[in-house]
């Protein structure tokens, strides 16, 4: 009876402890791996989709804008060049100020959300930060290249038109005056 009772109690306690520990360890490992895999996959897919869509839209808009700006600059050289210079400086100052404030606010918010720690909040903060940074980098590069291309085209066309007009007018007036004076003096 004593052996039976002891064996029964020992077996029950051992089984209970083993089952409890095994279940706890398995659940913990499964939850950890599942959360890790889900977060990784979600972040990867979100980043890929966002980058692809942003790049496509930006490229389309840039191509259209560049073609339009170049054609416009060729038609209205001097006026367009002056307006563009003013707009460029104003836009640069405004963009710089806005970017600084936006980056500060976004960084603060992202840090807060990330510290919060849940899978939902972490995914949300990561997606938000990724989209913001991707858009910022793409917009910055696009703006830089577009401004460079437009400015180059505008400067080239303006210089060409101005030089042509000035040279034509100067040559015409000089030739006319010289001929007139020479003829008058000779006569």
TrEMBL record:
Residues 1-187 are annotated as: Disordered. Coiled coil: none annotated. Residues 1-17, 48-73, 160-169 have a biased composition (Low complexity). InterPro entries: Uro-adherence_factor_A. Residues 110-123, 170-187 have a biased composition (Basic and acidic residues). This is Uncharacterized protein. It comes from Adineta steineri.
